[in-house]
C-alpha cells in the first residue's frame, strides 16, 4: 500500500484505525504453500486469534485455508464465515469438558492437551476422533510469554507422560487421528524446530490410525529493516523431505498441517494514529498520540517493536522522539526513536499491526475501540465500524438507587 492510500483512509475513517492489505495476506499464504509444495497433502489452518474479523476469516477461506481456533466462539465465527466444520481445528487450553463437548457437537476437529480431559472425553465419546497436543520440551519463541513448548509450560502433554497417555487411549478405545505440537512464536532457529519435529515423529509411531501431523507454527516475521525472520523456504525443503520419508515408514500419506497466524497477517497490518501534542521536556521530545495500550498492547506486554513512520512528512529530517499514548499509566510505544520530524496533526503509521493487535484491544479508560479497514483490490472496505458510546454501555445494567426498596425502608425506620 502507498502512504497516500493510508492517509486517505485516515481522513475518511478517522484515527486511530487499523488497515489490512489483502494482497499481502495472499502473498504470505502463497509463500508458505510454495515452501511445502513437495508435500502431497498440506493443510494451513489460519490461527483466528491473530486477527478474527469475520471479513478476514472469509478471505482466508477463499484462499483455501482451514481454521485454527482456541474457543467455541472462534469456532462459531469460523462456521459463520463459511468454513466447513471438518476444516476447523479446536485447540483450547484449560477449558471445561462441557465446552469441548459442545465444539465436538459442531463437528470441528478436537485437539486435547491434558491427560485429565483426554480420559474424560475418551470415556464418554470414544468414537469421536481427537488430536493430541504434545509438549516436546523444546524452548522456542522470542519472548517468555510466547514460548509454549518448554518443560514448565502449561500447554500440551509432556513427552514423559506418553506411557500414561497410551494407557488412556487403550483403556478408552478412543480414536486418535492427529498429533500436534506448538513450540512458541517468533522461531529463529529452524534446527530447533526440526529437532522438535523429530520428537513428534517418534511420538506419532505410537498411533496407527493417524490422518495428520500438526507442527503448529510460530514463524517469525521481520519487525524492522534488516530484521531476521524464519527462513520458511529452507524449513520447507528440510521438513518436507523428512515428512515424506516418515510417511513412507508409516505406510500412509498423512497430511502435514500448520497453524500460521502472525506469519499471514502481521505484515499486512497498519495502525494509523494522529499526533495530539508534541511535548518537550529537559531531555525528551514526546509525540503524544490519540491511542494507547487499550488499542495496541504488544509493545508493553511483549516488548514488541513496531516500526513507526510519519507518513504525513515522508521526506522530513529524522529526529528522536518517544511516542506515547493517552492512557493514565505509562504507555510508551517507542523510546528515543528516529522518526521524520513530527508536527501536531501528523499521522503516524505503526507497521506489523495485523496480528494480535486489534484482537487484544479493550475499552480501558472507557475509550472506544477503533475501526478496521480492508484494502482489497485497490479499494478501502470498512470491515468494522468505530465504536460509539452506545456500544460502550450496551450490555451494562443500571441499578436504580433513587427509589428505596421495601427492605431499605425497613432499615431506615427510626
How is this structure best described in words?
This protein has two domains: 22-265, Alanine racemase (TIM Barrel, Alpha-Beta Barrel), CATH 3.20.20; 269-387, Lyase, Ornithine Decarboxylase, Chain A, domain 1 (Beta Barrel). Helices cover 31% and strands 23% of the residues. It has 13 helices and 18 strands. It has helices at 3-13, 22-35, 54-63, 72-80, 97-106, 115-124, 162-172, 190-204, 232-250, 262-265, 298-301, 389-393, 406-411; strands spanning 17-21, 42-47, 66-69, 88-90, 109-112, 130-135, 157-158, 176-180, 212-214, 255-258, 269-280, 285-289, 308-310, 318-324, 332-340, 347-350, 371-376, 379-384. The strands form two sheets. Strands 1, 11, 12, 13, 14, 15, 16, 17 and 18 form a nine-stranded mixed beta sheet that branches. Helix 6 links the parallel strand 5 (109-112) and strand 6 (130-135). It is globular, with a radius of gyration of 24 Å. The relative contact order is 0.15. Mean pLDDT is 93; it is low at 140-150. This is Diaminopimelate decarboxylase. InterPro entries: Ala_racemase/Decarboxylase_C, DAP_deCOOHase_LysA, De-COase2_C, De-COase2_N, De-COase2_pyr-phos_BS, Orn/DAP/Arg_de-COase, PLP-binding_barrel. Residues 18-354 form the Orn/DAP/Arg decarboxylase 2 C-terminal domain. Specifically catalyzes the decarboxylation of meso-diaminopimelate (meso-DAP) to L-lysine.
Show the helix and strand layout.
Blueprint: H1 3-13, E1 17-21, H2 22-35, E2 42-47, H3 54-63, E3 66-69, H4 72-80, E4 88-90, H5 97-106, E5 109-112, H6 115-124, E6 130-135, E7 157-158, H7 162-172, E8 176-180, H8 190-204, E9 212-214, H9 232-250, E10 255-258, H10 262-265, E11 269-280, E12 285-289, H11 298-301, E13 308-310, E14 318-324, E15 332-340, E16 347-350, E17 371-376, E18 379-384, H12 389-393, H13 406-411
Parallel strand pairs: 1-17, 2-3, 2-10, 3-4, 4-5, 5-6, 6-7, 6-8, 8-9, 9-10, 12-14
Antiparallel strand pairs: 1-11, 11-12, 11-16, 13-16, 14-15, 17-18
Cofactor: pyridoxal 5'-phosphate
Catalytic activity: meso-2,6-diaminopimelate + H(+) = L-lysine + CO2
Domain Orn/DAP/Arg decarboxylase 2 N-terminal: 24-266
Amino acid at each position: 500500500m502507498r502512504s497516500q492510500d493510508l492517509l486517505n483512509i485516515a481522513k475518511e475513517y478517522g484515527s486511530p484505525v487499523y488497515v489490512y492489505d489483502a494482497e499481502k495476506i495472499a502473498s504470505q499464504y502463497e509463500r508458505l504453500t510454495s515452501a511445502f509444495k513437495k508435500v502431497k497433502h498440506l493443510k494451513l489452518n489460519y490461527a483466528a486469534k491473530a486477527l478474527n474479523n469475520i471479513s478476514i476469516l472469509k478471505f482466508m477461506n477463499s484462499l483455501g485455508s482451514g481454521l485454527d481456533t482456541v474457543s467455541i466462539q472462534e469456532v462459531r465465527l469460523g462456521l459463520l464465515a463459511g468454513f466447513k466444520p471438518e476444516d476447523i481445528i479446536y485447540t483450547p487450553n484449560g477449558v471445561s469438558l462441557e465446552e469441548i463437548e459442545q465444539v465436538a457437537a459442531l463437528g470441528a476437529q478436537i485437539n486435547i492437551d491434558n491427560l485429565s480431559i483426554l480420559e474424560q472425553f475418551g470415556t464418554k465419546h470414544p468414537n469421536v476422533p481427537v488430536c493430541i497436543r504434545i509438549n516436546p520440551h523444546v524452548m522456542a519463541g522470542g519472548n517468555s510469554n510466547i514460548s509454549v513448548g518448554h518443560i514448565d509450560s502449561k500447554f500440551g502433554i509432556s513427552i514423559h507422560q506418553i506411557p500414561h497417555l497410551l494407557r488412556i487411549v487403550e483403556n478408552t478405545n478412543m480414536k486418535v487421528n492427529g498429533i500436534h505440537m506448538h513450540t512458541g512464536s517468533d522461531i529463529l532457529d529452524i534446527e530447533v524446530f526440526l529437532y522438535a519435529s523429530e520428537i513428534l515423529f517418534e511420538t506419532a509411531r505410537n498411533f496407527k490410525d493417524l490422518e495428520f501431523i500438526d507442527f503448529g507454527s510460530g514463524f517469525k516475521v521481520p519487525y524492522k529493516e534488516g530484521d531476521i525472520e524464519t527462513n520458511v523456504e529452507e524449513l520447507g525443503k528440510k521438513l518436507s523431505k523428512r515428512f515424506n520419508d516418515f510417511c513412507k515408514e508409516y505406510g500412509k500419506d498423512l497430511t502435514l498441517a500448520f497453524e500460521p497466524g502472525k506469519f499471514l497477517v502481521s505484515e499486512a497490518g497498519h495502525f494509523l494514529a494522529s499526533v495530539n501534542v508534541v511535548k518537550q521536556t529537559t531531555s525528551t521530545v514526546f509525540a503524544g498520540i490519540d491511542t494507547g495500550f487499550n488499542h495496541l498492547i504488544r509493545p508493553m506486554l511483549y516488548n514488541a517493536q513496531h516500526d513507526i513512520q510519519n507518513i504525513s512528512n515522508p521526506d522530513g529530517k529524522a529526529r528522536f522522539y518517544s511516542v506515547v499514548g493517552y492512557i493514565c499509566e505509562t504507555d510508551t510505544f517507542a523510546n528515543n526513536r528516529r522518526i521524520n520530524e513530527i508536527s501536531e496533526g501528523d499521522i503516524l503509521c505503526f507497521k506489523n499491526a495485523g496480528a494480535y493487535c486489534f484482537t487484544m484491544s479493550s475499552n480501558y479508560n472507557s475509550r472506544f475501540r477503533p475501526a478496521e479497514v480492508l484494502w482489497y483490490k485497490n479499494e478501502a472496505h470498512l470491515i468494522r465500524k468505530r465504536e460509539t458510546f452506545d456500544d460502550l454501555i450496551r450490555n451494562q445494567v443500571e441499578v436504580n438507587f433513587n427509589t428505596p426498596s421495601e427492605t431499605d425502608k425497613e432499615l431506615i425506620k427510626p
